[in-house]
Design brief:
alpha+beta, Tetrahydropterin Synthase, Chain A, 3 domains, four-stranded antiparallel β-sheet, three-stranded antiparallel β-sheet, 6 helices, 24% strand, rod-shaped
């Protein structure tokens, strides 16, 4: 939209210069009218080029674009490459590459979850996820930008981890692989949602890798285990 407005302004200035050049030439022919006319042609050419440029966008590899304007969202995504768009539309871009949580340098979030005995467990996980480019328009309409997608993924992680942990008891703590698989499945299913306006469900993102980094029982349980080992 900004390029289109700039092109319109340049075109108006170019028209004004050409009109002024014609007036000056009629009254007093000379180099001034020629200079004004050349300036008008140059600005007119720039306006045309800028207007044409506003109809093309480049979607980089690893990205997908969503075209929207005046409250309407185009249902088909803009895949990587040079794409023609109406000049007054806006483009929202999303990464289609794998994303990671927590990111490098980000502090690991400890998730407090309950076991089947309703005892507090300390859980630390990390995951990798990826969006489906074909779902980008629906994601834009229902979720928002990339920060909001990340927020939805984090909520799904917390929900999936807690829903999975409550299926296991303290005695199952050694079954890390089984617990991790259950958590991964529930996190992935939590990323499927129903549009607010109705219609079929759609997937916000897909879990591509899940890692159970740490799983610790309550401190009193650890202390009791250590005391029992010491007595033996």
């Amino acid at each position: 939209m900004g390029k289109l407005i700039a092109a319109a302004v340049l075109l108006f200035i170019a028209f004004s210069l050409l009109l002024t050049a014609a007036t000056v030439r009629a009254q007093r022919p000379g180099p001034a009218s020629n200079l004004l006319r050349v300036g008008g042609y140059v600005l007119g050419a720039l306006a045309i080029l800028l207007g044409l440029g506003s109809t093309m966008v480049v979607i980089d590899p690893g990205e997908v674009g969503v075209r929207h304007a005046f409250g309407y969202v185009q249902p088909s995504p803009l895949l990587a490459g040079i794409r023609l768009v109406v000049p007054w539309s806006e483009i929202e871009r999303y990464s289609t590459r794998e994303e990671q949580w927590p990111t490098r340098g980000e502090q690991i979030e400890a998730i407090e979850a309950l076991s089947s005995e309703q005892m507090g467990m300390h859980v630390e996980v990390s995951i990798r996820w990826q969006i489906d480019p074909m779902q980008a328009p629906k994601i834009f309409t229902e979720i928002g930008d990339e920060n909001q997608i990340r927020g939805a993924v984090l909520n799904a992680i917390r929900k999936g981890v807690r829903d999975a942990m409550v299926q296991y008891s303290i005695n199952d703590i050694a079954k890390r692989t089984q617990i991790a698989n259950t958590m991964e499945g529930l996190v992935d299913s939590a990323l499927v949602t129903t549009p607010r306006a109705g219609g079929g469900k759609f997937r916000i993102a897909t879990v591509t890798a899940f890692f159970l980094r740490d799983l610790q029982p309550p401190a009193q349980v650890v202390q009791a285990i250590n005391n029992k080992i010491a007595q033996e």
